[in-house]
Design a protein that fits this description.
By secondary structure, the protein is of the alpha+beta class. It folds into three domains: 30 residues, no CATH class; 61 residues, Single Sheet (N-terminal domain of TfIIb); 84 residues, no CATH class. The chain contains seven helices and eight strands; from the N terminus they run αααβββααββαββαβ. The protein has a three-stranded antiparallel sheet with strand order 1-2-3, with no helix packed on it. A three-stranded mixed sheet has the order 6-7-8. A two-stranded antiparallel sheet has the order 4-5. The structure holds iron/sulfur cluster.
């Protein structure tokens, strides 16, 4: 269907009609070919790598499209028997995990009492975390309760996983924390 400039402006200006796209669809205009064409152009010549959404245990299958090693698109994998190409709103936003100007790419450290953050080396930060974890565990470790029950735990460390850690990494994390005697273990994905 042909839509004149006057029709387009009228539809765009009509608050009750919603968006211009909604108005065009209301006039019977099908956007499917244009959208398919735009999608085809975006992933044309892209390398496709199958992957899995990290956000929850459903584990929806995804396809990651890259051009010259840079991610240009992520979408549901239609071959997957359980998500059949679909992704929930969280999964549909995975692209923004990778391509996001707000993503922190450096380690920041704020010294005790300081008001400003400073950039530090990852190696230094990992050594510092290990040092403080060992110190805290050594100082607070409880081998037995007053009634003699063996517990081998520390109540002084709390482990909080992130929603973007996948199932396997979360499994390894909780094994590690439990091995240290940490009993307060939670994951942000459930909050
Ligand atoms: S797309 Fe949604 S339902 Fe599927 S794994 Fe990701 S978060 Fe879970």
């Amino acid at each position: 269907m042909l839509v004149g400039r006057r029709d387009f402006l009228r539809l765009t200006a009509s608050a009750g009609a919603g968006t211009a796209i909604g108005g065009l669809v209301g006039l019977g205009v099908t956007l499917a070919p244009a959208m398919a064409r735009a999608q085809e152009l975006r992933i044309k010549d892209a390398k496709t790598t199958p992957s899995i959404c990290p956000f929850c245990s459903v584990g929806c299958a995804t396809l990651i499209h890259t051009v010259d090693g840079k991610i240009v698109n992520i979408e549901g994998d239609p071959r997957s028997p359980h998500n059949e190409g679909t992704l929930c709103p969280k999964g549909a936003a995975i692209y923004q995990l990778h391509m996001n100007p707000n993503r922190a790419t450096k380690v920041l450290h704020r010294k005790p009492g300081a008001s400003d953050w400073e950039v530090v080396e990852l190696e230094w930060a990992m050594d510092r975390v290990a040092e403080l974890t060992k110190k805290t565990r050594d100082e607070t470790f409880i081998e037995k309760l007053p009634n003699g029950k063996l517990v081998n735990m520390t109540p002084a460390i709390f482990a909080l996983g992130g929603a973007t850690l996948d199932n396997e990494f979360n499994h390894v994390c909780q094994k590690f924390w439990r091995g240290l005697g940490v009993v307060a273990i939670e994951n942000q994905a459930r909050i």
